[in-house]
Structure formats: C-alpha cells, structure tokens
Amino acid sequence: MSSGGPGAAVLDAHLVVRRPGFGLDVRLRVALGQVLALLGPNGAGKSTALRALAGLVPLSEGHVLVDGADVTTAPAERRPVGMVFQDYLLFPHLSVVENVAFGPRCRGVPARRARRLALDLLAEAGLDGYAAARPGALSGGQQQRVALARALAVRPRLLLLDEPMAALDAHTRVSVRTQLRRRLAAFAGATVLVTHDPLDAMVLADRVLVLEGGAAVQEGSPAEVARRPRTGYVARLVGVNLYRGRASGTRVRLAASSGEGAVLTVAESVEGEVFAAFPPRAVALYRERPAGSPRNVWPLTVDGVEPFGDRVRVHLTGVLEVNADITAAALAELALSPGVRVWAGVKATEVECYPA
Amino acid sequence: MPVSSFPERGRRSGRLSAGRVPWLLVLPALLGLGFLVLPLAGLLVRAPWSALGARLLSAGVRDALLLSLGTATAATAVSLLLGVPLAWLLARTGFPGRRVVRALVTVPLVLPPVVGGVALLLVLGRNGVLGRYLYEWTGYSLPFTTAAVVVAQVFVAMPFLVISVEGALRGVDRRYEEAAATLGATRWTVFRRVTLPMVAPGVLAGAVLCWSRALGEFGATIMFAGNFPGRTQTMPLAVYLEMQRSPEAAIVLSLVLLAVSVLVLVLLRDRWTGTP
Amino acid sequence: MRLSRLAAPLCVALAACACAPGTSEQDGRTLTVFAAASLTEVFGGLGERFEEEHPGVTVEFSFAGSSALAEQLVRGASADVFASADTATMDRVVDGVGVSLGPEVFARNTLQIAVPPDNPAGVGSLDDLAADGVAVVLCAEEVPCGAASRTVLEAAGVAVEPVSWEEDVKAALTRVRLGEADAALVYRTDVLSAGGGVLGVDFPESGEAVNDYAIGVVDGGPEPGLAAEWIALVASPEGEKVLTDAGFVLP
C-alpha cells in the first residue's frame, strides 16, 4: 500500500503467537487517527494480541511496525505505546498525579515538568480536584480517566485499550463511553481497542476486526459488521438472524447448517454462496397463515420467550431457527408460550444478502 | 421431669448461641497464653527490684545492650540488602533448582543455631575453607569480632526476612509491573517504584521478625564470635554467663532485653504494619 | 512422693535379705558412684575392672558437675561413693551428709597452655600469651577454669587480653583445635583428651591453681563395703596409672 501521507498506517503488525493449545495469527493495520476494535469471544486471542503489541508477550513470528519503525523485539518499556488495562491497574501506593507522572518520569522528564504535564492531563480529563487522592478513593469511571491520562502522558503513537468498560457498572458505562469517544477522537495516533461488547465497538471504533479462535474472521466498519455478520458469534452479538445458502436469482436455498430445504426470498437477485441476514424486529408472527404481503412465511414452534429491552424476544424452531422481537402487547394477543405453533413472516426487502 | 426440662434446655442453648463463646477454642487459647506469659511473669517476680537501678546503670549492661541493638540493626540492614533480592529471585524467576534453593534458604530456620555457628567457623574462621585465604591475603580474621556477631545474626535471621518477602512478592498482582513497563519503566525502576512499595508491608514485617531473631541470637554468636564484653558479648551471652555466677544479675539483664524487645516490637508494629 | 518413701526402705530390706545367707554370694548388688564429669573416662574404665573383680556387682555412675552432685546428696540422694573435682564441694557433703574413709585427695589437675599442633604463634610460656598478635582464648571468669586461669595469670603478673572469654573449658579447647585461636588455658586432662588435636605446654606457674580431686564413702550408703573396695581400686597402682594416663597428677 501507499506509504507516507495522512493515510499511512501508524501500526502495521502481523502477530503470530503459538502456545500449547492456542494459536494467534492476525494482521493489523491502523491509520493515523483511526480506532480499531478487536471484537471476539473469550479466549479468541484479543488480549494476547494487545499484549503482543505492547511487548508483554513475545511474538513467535511476524512483526510490529509503528510509524514504520520495527519494534518487534523491543521490550515493553521501549515501545511508543500507551496502554489502559482492563481494571486500570493504577498504582495503589501513588497519588493520582504521581500515577500520571510515572510514565514521563520513567522516560527522563524532570520531576517538576512531569508533574506539570500530569496536572494538565488531569485537568483535561476533568479531574483537577483529585491530583492528591489515592486511586482507591476514585469511582470506576474516574479511575478509567486517570488510567487513560496515564497512558497518554507518555505521548504514545499507539494507544492500547483492554476492555476499558468491563470494570464499570452499566449505569456509568454510557457516560464514560461518551467521554472516552471524545478523548479518542482527539488522540493523534492509532488506537487498538479490545472489547467483547459490540456497543463499545460500534460507538468507539472506526473499524472492527472480529477474532475467533486466534484468527480474523471478519473486518470492516462497525455498521457493515453489524449488518452483515459472517459468523454465528457476530450475528448473536449484534442480534441478527444469520443463514448461509446458495442463491439463484432472488431465491436462497439454505445450507444444511442453517435449515435444510428452507428457502429465503430476497429483494435483489444474486448468484452463488451467500449469507442472508435479517434483524429479529423484522419478523412478524401470526396465529393463522398470513394471506398478503410477506414473501417469506414459515410455520414454526415457539421454543422460548424472554424479555429483551422494551420488547420480547421469541425463539422459534422448525425448518429454520428464527429470533423474533415483538411487543408485549403482541405477545399477549397471540398468547404465545413454548410449544405453540405460529407462522413467522419476513419481507424480502428486510433480508440482507451478501456473498459468503 | 423430662418434660419440664425441655423448655429450660431450649432457653439455655438459645442464650449460648446468642453469646457465641466457643469454649473449645477459648480454653486452649487461654492455656497457651498463660504458658507464654507465665515464665515472663516469673522473671518479674524474681527480679531483685531493690538492686535494679544500680545494676541497670552498670557499664557492663550498657555495653551489652548497645552492642545487641547495634548488631541486630546492622544484621537487619544486611539481611534487607541481600535477602530482598534473594526473595525476588525465588518468587519471580524460574531458574532450575529453585525449589532446592528455597529449601536451603529455610534450613537455618530449623538448624540449631549452634550448628550454624560451627558451620560459619568452618567456612569463615581463620582456618576455614574461605577464611583461610582471607587471613593469608589480608591478615584479617573474622571470628571474635563485632562483624562476626553480625554475620552470625544474619545467618540465623535472614531466612525470616526472605520467607516473608517472598510471600509478599507472590501476593503482588504482576500486571502492575506490566503496566509500569508499558509506561517506560526499566526492570530496575519497576522493582524500585512499583514492586518494592507494594510489598512494603511484607518487607517491614520480615524486617521486624529478622531484627527480633537477631536480638535474641545466642548459639551461633557464641560459637562464631566468641564472648568478649563490649565487642562480641551481646545481651543473650551476658545473660547466659551471668547465670553461672549470679542469677540475680542474669535476671536483670533478661528484664532489660525483655523490656527493649517489647517496646521496639510494639512501636514498629503500630507505626508501620498498622496491626495493633 | 509417698510411693518412693515407702519404696526406699523396702529396697534396702530386700538387699539385706539377699546378702544375708552367704558372704560370698554377691548377686544383684549395686555400687553407686557420684563423680565429677571430668572423671567420666577414668572411672568408666575402672568400673569395668571392678565388675570383673566382683562378679555379680554392678557399678552405677552418675557423672555431672561436682556442685550439682553435692546438692543432690545433701537433698537426700543415695550414693556409696562421692568424688568431687575440688575440696570445697567435698566439704559441703562432709558437712551435710557425712563422709567416712576420707575425704582424701586422690588426684590433681593443673592448667596447661593448649596450642595447635603446629603452634603457629610459637607459644612457649605464659608470658607469650601477652604478646601482640597472639589470639588467646580464656575460660570466662564465671566458670571454674576461668577462675583458675585468673589465679595463675595474676600470680605470674601477666596481663592477657583474650579475643574471647569462653563459656566453658571444652569451648576454649575447641577454639584451639579448630585453629581459630593460637592458645588457650585449659586443664591438662583436657589437652590429653583432645588426642593429637592440640599440644600441651607446661608452665611453672600452673602450681598456683591446683584442682584437688577428693573422694570418700558417703554415710548411709547401702554398700559401704564395696565403696571402700572402690576407693582402694582408685588408690591402687592400677588406678594411679589410669589417672596419670588421663593427665591427672598424683598428690
């Protein structure tokens, strides 16, 4: 690819880590100002990838280039990297300002200047009053901001965030996420973010890389990944019904894994191996076979019902498995309970179809 | 009769569970406490209180006390200097034979101190395996010097420090050290500014233990350093020798040692380890 | 307490019955000897000899510090013979219990300078102990050999600055054996018991501090006859040879 210029990759890495019973092999490129989210289930290798970038895990093979400089074998303390750890790991024996000044001090900044710099960063993070406090006296959200300030204090080219929201309760997560987004937008470098929460990835990242079993299974913009998942994991994560099959015109015959023999009708004509996906709220349920509009109608059996936000998610089985989101009123009207047989309908225009 | 006894038994057991006094634990605990405290009380009962003042002010007691405090403190300093890195090595590196090394480190804990003194003499004595060369090349002979007292105390007391610090090091979340590394800290800086402060309570507890053990050291000291007032005669040695001539004087010395150690332990624990 | 009080006379009665029928019958008789610890080897050897000469007799020893043994005797312990390392201790038993057939001084022990076999400091007299660079250990003044050392040094007018005051005579000897000290003042018997490990250097002033070993038959002991025979054995040419071999001097 092109080198130099605003689009040049700050991070260019090929991470290969082999351990007994585990292997990671993934390529990452992150441009200036870009935020890449590594999304994946537990044990997929997200954290290992992040630790390898930081120099905390040695590579079995591959390379790590930051701004074109090879840091593959550089120890952690000599990489232009700042890292925010999952539970922040603020040094409990140091005050907040000492925590933030720690990095600059280690990199040779005189004590007074390091302290000045740390105080400025704390002010930016809205933590002016907490400089002398111990980290233990801070709330989770405040700790996260201190951890970010501490990582930024070393003026890194590459910022690494390991599950930055995981330690927060759901209540504070929303506001902290918004603040983090602002801070990341202002950061003049490349950011890699590890999360298992798709919402984090959607809100914070410019691009999402889905890791499963140590390998990249999908990469793209958050919207793209959400709309067109390529694995069951991502589909479940973003709450989409995902099928695989062979398309011919506007008809998709589903593969054995998705529902042998079932046929999906889509709006635009395609050919070959495809994924077909539609969101649960696009599914309508009927006690009787609907007469009119939907092109896709299947008789299915209710397998389970659970509340899902302000709606109710209904699990259906039969020729294919479908999740449907309906209102509580509709649930009452249809008198649905496990074992009840219903008709499920999806409009062809609601079905996203893309090559596998 | 049996009928009427039921409600009463019920009431009594109710009161017992409310009071929550587990006598099965309290009785042996009190017995143990008595066993530890009574001998000390005996010292107080038998103390020649009338002659106490004059004896306390004698140069002999002062010399022995100062020597004991000085050497125990020096031994603790040496133990910190050597023992903390040793504990780090044991806790943090996976060198081959580490288990054997740890066992060796703890040997002085179970070895009779006299045996330790003999071993030191055989190695560091004027005629010892190593001491011989020291003597040949420099004319310096370690036994019978104050330095020998410190060496003997370090030998018996350092394991306490190493064990304590190693335990503390194992308890530290190593990810804090990784965090420091990503911030640009070298291994030495990580150790100095992160690891060490985080294990500080363990180090202090170990140092207090080490100091106490050094203060009470007798066997290895008398074997390796000999007995010379003002130079190698620490309080325990003075107590032992006085016991053969004048038990009263020995009791006075013991009381001084007791008072000083209790005072120091109380002060140290209150101030640094935060345990009352 | 009550049991032992009852038991003691009973034992004596049984012993008396056993020996009553015939004087040549000695089966099951026991001679009890309390002796200073420094006599352990000498008396141990003589004990075997005694048992050979007196079939059926067992010699039982109690070796300990003289004063500890005297204390036991005064407080009612039963023994036939008492041998102490000094006359003062024997006097305590004479006053407290009573001693017949003696007390008599049967051996003497004097101080010697112990030096390593190669005598690196070239010590040949008491004066040499005061020389610069000679590492001397002395017994602490709290213990008997220390008191004796002090006496001879004072008599000789020699001021010795030791490197260490040892807690007992064996500890002082060990320093020399290990080569950590150039010389020590110890008893002649200790030098001999160390075998070739140390050399003994005699000095004329040793006569100033002589330990007299005294022996006697304790009043009230169950075997006064055997006790007398034991003392005869110690005083015999054979006994004297064992004593001198061990380093004791005869009175």
Automatic annotation (TrEMBL), chain A:
UniProt xrefs under InterPro entries: AAA+_ATPase, ABC_SmlMolc_Importer, ABC_transporter-like_ATP-bd, ABC_transporter-like_CS, ABC_transpr_FbpC, Mo/tungstate-bd_C_term_dom, Mop_domain, P-loop_NTPase
GO BP terms: molybdate ion transport
CC per GO annotation: membrane
Domain called Mop: residue spans: 291-355
Domain called ABC transporter: residue spans: 8-238
Keywords from the named record: ATP-binding, Cell membrane, Ion transport, Iron, Iron transport, Membrane, Molybdenum, Nucleotide-binding, Transport
Gene Ontology MF annotations: ABC-type ferric iron transporter activity; ATP binding; ATP hydrolysis activity
Name used for this protein in its record: ABC transporter ATP-binding protein
Organism: Thermobifida cellulosilytica TB100
Automatic annotation (TrEMBL), chain B:
Domain ABC transmembrane type-1: 65-268
One Pfam short name: BPD_transp_1
Source superkingdom: Bacteria
PROSITE patterns in UniProt: ABC_TM1
Principal location: membrane
Assigned protein family: Belongs to the binding-protein-dependent transport system permease family. CysTW subfamily.
Name of the featured protein: Molybdenum transport system permease
Lineage of the species this protein comes from: Bacteria, Bacillati, Actinomycetota, Actinomycetes, Streptosporangiales
UniProtKB/TrEMBL annotation, chain C:
Residues the record lists as binding molybdate: S38, S66, V169, Y187
Similarity remark: Belongs to the bacterial solute-binding protein ModA family.
Protein known as: Molybdate-binding protein
PROSITE patterns: PROKAR_LIPOPROTEIN (PS51257)
Keyword check for tRNA-binding: no
Molecular function GO terms recorded: metal ion binding; molybdate ion binding
Matches recorded under PANTHER family: MOLYBDATE-BINDING PERIPLASMIC PROTEIN, SULFATE-BINDING PROTEIN
GO terms, biological process: molybdate ion transport
Keywords attached to this entry: Metal-binding, Molybdenum, Signal
Lineage of source species: Bacteria, Bacillati, Actinomycetota, Actinomycetes, Streptosporangiales
Keyword Metal-binding belongs to the record: yes
Pfam families: SBP_bac_11
Signal peptide feature range: 1-18
